[in-house]
């Protein structure tokens, strides 16, 4: 089965990990520091906190922003459940706003309709690798004193308006899962413009430990002393994973180039094909394409999905609207809330897209799409 996404691991990646295994540090050592500095530099020069996954990065980000009971988080339903669930776990009420019908990115006008004075965070998702419209979202959030969060699990290395992903919202999260644009095996990161938010995020992901003696409440202990002022979790990334991440960062430009080549090949192949729509790119963005979300029209998505899977092509669907999940349906969320998202979901089919995909394999995917539509 040709997968829809997979990691690209080189001999240099392997050597970087082996070097850590032969050294003194396996976790929370110099490789973690170096990786965080490199991610922060890529993301506009802001502080980065590495985490164990994209989900833990979201949990850490919301905690760093002070999200809790009584707060509202406005977000998109066209995402993996963690964008919403990590806010729900902290006690926030999640409000879903509809998406742009062409790009599946959070629609700023829809955000304005649902947000209230209790809105703490507006969380957009850079679906498929395109940055959301943060230039429009930020002033909307500012009017009620809310923060913006970019769930950039799909978009590290991209830009919008000449600014890098990581510098577009108040806080940004990344995922380094194997199918993403670079991998640490499992991993993620939080990037925050505000140093106070960054420090709170750091302490949350570090079990809540405070090591700044100027903040100690117990002042008569020895040099070993550390305190917990607020509860946190152990979401720390390892040196092993960070070494792989550093090696992958050196290849990110090549990954981006190859993904763009594959997207262009798909676009050309499907431009005149009846029954499908190709992805729409926002003006002013330079994406790192994580997904190729082909739209299969006329209610034929499931048929095409099943035919292509039978043909050995591991297509996927990204994503079921979050509020369709039983955990949200049981809480009172109802279908029909976000019609654009639901219409997009009904047609979306993610085709294989990863750097090691060959041109011959791309052509194999194209032939499978054409055959499935007959």
UniProtKB/TrEMBL annotation:
Cofactor field: pyridoxal 5'-phosphate
Keyword Calcium: no
Active site as annotated: 180
Gene Ontology MF term list: pyridoxal phosphate binding; transaminase activity
Keyword field: Pyridoxal phosphate
Residues with PTM N6-(pyridoxal phosphate)lysine: 180
Any one Gene Ontology BP term: polysaccharide biosynthetic process
Transmembrane segments: none
Family: Belongs to the DegT/DnrJ/EryC1 family.
PANTHER family reported for this sequence: DTDP-4-AMINO-4,6-DIDEOXYGALACTOSE TRANSAMINASE (PTHR30244:SF34), TRANSAMINASE (PTHR30244)
Protein known as: dTDP-4-amino-4,6-dideoxygalactose transaminase
Organism of provenance: Nocardioides terrae
């Amino acid at each position: 089965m040709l997968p829809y996404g997979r990691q690209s691991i080189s001999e240099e990646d392997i050597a970087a990990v082996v070097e850590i295994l032969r050294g003194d540090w396996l976790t929370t050592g110099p490789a973690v520091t170096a990786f965080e500095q490199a991610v922060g530099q890529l993301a506009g020069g802001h502080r980065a906190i590495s985490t164990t996954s994209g989900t833990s990065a979201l949990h850490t980000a919301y905690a760093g922003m002070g999200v809790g009971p009584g707060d509202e988080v406005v977000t998109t339903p066209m995402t993996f459940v963690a964008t919403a669930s990590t806010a729900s776990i902290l006690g926030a009420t999640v409000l879903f706003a509809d998406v742009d019908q062409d790009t599946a990115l959070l629609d700023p006008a829809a955000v304005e309709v649902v947000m209230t004075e209790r809105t703490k965070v507006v969380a957009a998702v850079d679906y498929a690798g395109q940055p959301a419209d943060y230039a429009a979202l930020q002033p909307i959030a500012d009017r009620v004193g809310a923060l913006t969060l970019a769930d950039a699990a799909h978009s590290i290395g991209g830009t919008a308006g000449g600014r890098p992903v990581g510098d577009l919202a108040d806080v940004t999260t990344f995922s380094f899962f194997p199918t993403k644009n670079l991998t640490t095996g499992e991993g993620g990161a939080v990037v925050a413009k505000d140093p106070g938010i960054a420090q709170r995020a750091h302490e949350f992901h570090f079990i809540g430990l405070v090591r700044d003696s100027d903040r100690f409440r117990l002042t008569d202990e020895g040099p070993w002393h550390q305190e917990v002022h607020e509860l946190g979790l152990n979401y720390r990334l390892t040196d092993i994973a960070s070494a792989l991440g550093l090696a992958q960062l050196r290849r990110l430009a090549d990954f981006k180039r190859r993904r763009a080549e594959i997207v262009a090949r798909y676009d050309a192949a499907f431009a005149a094909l009846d029954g499908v729509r190709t992805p729409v790119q926002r003006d002013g963005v330079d994406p790192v394409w994580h997904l190729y979300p082909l739209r299969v029209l006329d209610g034929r998505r499931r048929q095409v999905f099943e035919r292509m899977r039978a043909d050995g092509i591991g297509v996927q669907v990204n994503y079921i609207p979050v509020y369709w999940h039983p955990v949200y349906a049981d809480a009172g969320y109802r279908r029909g809330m976000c019609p654009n998202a639901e219409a997009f979901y009904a047609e979306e089919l993610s085709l294989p897209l990863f750097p090691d995909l060959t041109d011959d394999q791309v052509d194999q995917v194209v032939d499978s799409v054409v055959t499935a539509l007959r």
